[in-house]
Each structure stands twice: as C-alpha cells, then as structure tokens.
Amino acid sequence: MNIILSTLTTLGVIALSSSASAQTFDACGTMLDNPNGGPSSTTSCRMFVEDGTGLIYQVQGGPQGFNHGDRVRATGDINLIFGTFCWGPITGGMIENATLVVDPTCDIVVVPPINLLCDPAVNHYQGDYVKLDDSAFGSGSGSDLHLDAKDGPDGEFGFFLMSIDGSAMTTVFSGVLCLGTPQGRYNPQIATNQGLPQLNSLGQFNAAGDLVNISGTSSTGFGFDVPTELPFSPIGQGISSGDTLYFQCWYRDQVAPLPNPGSSANFSNMIEVTFP
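Request: output the structure for the sequence above.
Response:
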C-alpha cells in the first residue's frame, strides 16, 4: 500500500497535506473542464476557480450539468487534506459537500485595483508626461485588460512594454524605465517573430494626446487590448489568473530646444495589474 501511494504521489495523481483543516467555503467563480480532458458537466473531476484569488479547487458533490466557463456560486466545506484522481493544478484544496448554483451576483466580477507607479513620469518635449491612468479591465478580448496612453506628444509613435518586475528605476534617453527584467515588448518585430499579430501595440499620438492604435489590436481604436499571450521567448507563455504584471508605454520624444530637436525616447508612468 505504501508503494502504491508513493507511486501515485510521484505521478501527481494524489496530493496530501500534512494536517487536517476544514472550514466553510462560499465564493463565486468559474467552472473549468477537468485537467484529464473531460467536460466539467459530466465528470467527477470537476474544477472551480475562485474569483479574486485565482485558486483552483476540486468539487465533490453538487449538481452535474455545469460547463467550462459557467459562472456559479460554490458553497461547502473546504478540506486541505485531500486525495484526488484528477491531474492538477489544484491550488486551493477540495470543496466537499458542495452546492453549485447559478447566482446573478456572481456575474459582477470583482477585479483587483490597477495601481499607478513611477508617477509622475518625465515630461516630454511638449511639456507633459504620458499617463496610463485610464487603463482598465473590460475589453472583452484576450486578458480583458485594455491599456490607454494619454497626454503624449502629437505625431509621435509608441508601443507598450511589460515585465513581471516593477522595481527598476533606470534612466533611458529622456525618461525612466521602471520595468525590471525580463521585459517584453508588444511591437511589430515581436509580433512577426512569434507569428502572433495580437502582440503588436504600435500606435501614434494624435493632437489630443491619445495613443491611436494603428495595429488593429484595440477594441476602441485607442491604446491596446492586452492578449493572453506574453511577448516572451520561448513562445507559448501566457497570463494566468493571479499573475501580477507591470506595464509602461515607450514612445518617441524629441530633445528641445526647437526648431531643430534631436531624436530621443521617453516612457509613461507605470501600472501594476493583478489579473483576476
């Protein structure tokens, strides 16, 4: 018996915690197809991802019939000692004696705040600095995050950058790069290299200072709808629920005094985003 348990644990089929812990569970979330490939509507290996935390649970009990992507309220007992014959990831435990119901209030997804950092940024040659303040969830595309850049220099080009690290403060050309490493660029070169046109965020600031998307990757025509795919190598890395990422806009700037400025570059302020 010990040999069997050891083998199953090695294969990732059984997961056991070291101490018992049970408490009442009540949360909104989304049903997921089980990792073995079976539909969540018919299998005993039903999975549920909790809003806000992104934790994934196996569901024991409750009615069948819910499909991948269905919004439900799950109640029951959360047990951190569990054995499961579903493949992971199970990051939260098992919801026992579960009840699953359609609850209209669960359609109101509470998303984490978008925090402004490195603010104010360095002014460009027209006397203001580029801001990502209006960026928000709700694009309905990709990761659901929409980036907007405003108060930029008329006629100049720009695109968005991202990183998993927002702790840098590096002077680059006229501005400050606050993104640490590794960095990803949503630009034409990366989009072409990876064969993913949705990774291109290239835009041009208009007379009102708004970055107009010229790549066909914005539902509004401005800014950029962030896809789930990340602009990193190797190809195939993506944004997951619970990930915290940082974004800035890089753009062309000019070095005063006019009328014969040289070519330079600058950066917007930075936002910190945790994905629901």
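The chain has two domains: 2-107, 115-274.
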